[in-house]
């Protein structure tokens, strides 16, 4: 998958994190993950699937202009604050910002409610951030909403597959241990 947050390389779907401890750090939200991820093997760049589905542009009633998703602080000498919750925006996490009036803020304050629900519920076992939308009355066109819903349904299905794979692996380990024990 090509993703604008990492244009140098293609991201590949990994069924399990390839790191020895079995987890990865999402370069989108900064939270740990332990299930499927999109990964660049050359750069060790990793994303949760819902983070990859976050819309590149959103509208919000607080600004007449579109808000664009930024993957890093465009000016490291400036500190940005969320226009909704007024918290400081971590310069290493993604955020939305209007290019005209500099209004914007945390992804969790501006992202679509469906994305936030998956991040805060379906990925809870991955220690993904519990995000609470501040203003759920966002405007999206029907195609973008359908695409996002499809991606989020896919993510939930993939989490179920991942859990089933883990369960089968554990059962296999128990059976192998019982067989080894009976041979002694």
Automatic annotation (TrEMBL):
Swiss-Prot/TrEMBL keywords: Repeat
Segments forming domain DC1: 4-52, 63-109
Pfam family membership, one: C1_2
InterPro entries associated with the record: C1-like_sf, DC1
PANTHER family linked to this entry: CYSTEINE_HISTIDINE-RICH C1 DOMAIN FAMILY PROTEIN, PHORBOL-ESTER/DAG-TYPE DOMAIN-CONTAINING PROTEIN
Protein name: DC1 domain-containing protein
Taxonomic lineage of the native organism: Eukaryota, Viridiplantae, Streptophyta, Embryophyta, Tracheophyta
């Amino acid at each position: 998958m090509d993703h604008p947050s990492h244009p140098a390389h293609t991201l590949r779907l990994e069924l399990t994190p390839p790191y020895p401890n079995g987890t990865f750090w999402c370069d989108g939200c900064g939270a740990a993950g332990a299930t499927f991820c999109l990964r660049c093997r050359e750069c060790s760049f990793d994303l949760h699937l819902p983070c990859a589905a976050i819309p590149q542009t959103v509208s919000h009633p607080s600004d007449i202009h579109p808000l664009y998703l930024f993957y890093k602080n465009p000016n490291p000498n400036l500190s940005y604050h969320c226009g909704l919750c007024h918290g400081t925006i971590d310069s290493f996490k993604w955020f939305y910002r209007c290019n005209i009036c500099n209004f914007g803020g945390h992804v969790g304050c501006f992202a679509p409610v469906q994305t936030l629900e998956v991040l805060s519920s379906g990925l809870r076992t991955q220690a993904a951030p519990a995000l609470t939308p501040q203003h759920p009355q966002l405007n999206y066109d029907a195609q973008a909403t359908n695409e996002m819903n499809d991606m989020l349904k896919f993510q939930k299905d993939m989490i179920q597959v991942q859990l089933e794979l883990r369960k089968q692996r554990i059962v296999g380990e128990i059976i192998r241990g019982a067989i080894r024990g009976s041979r002694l």
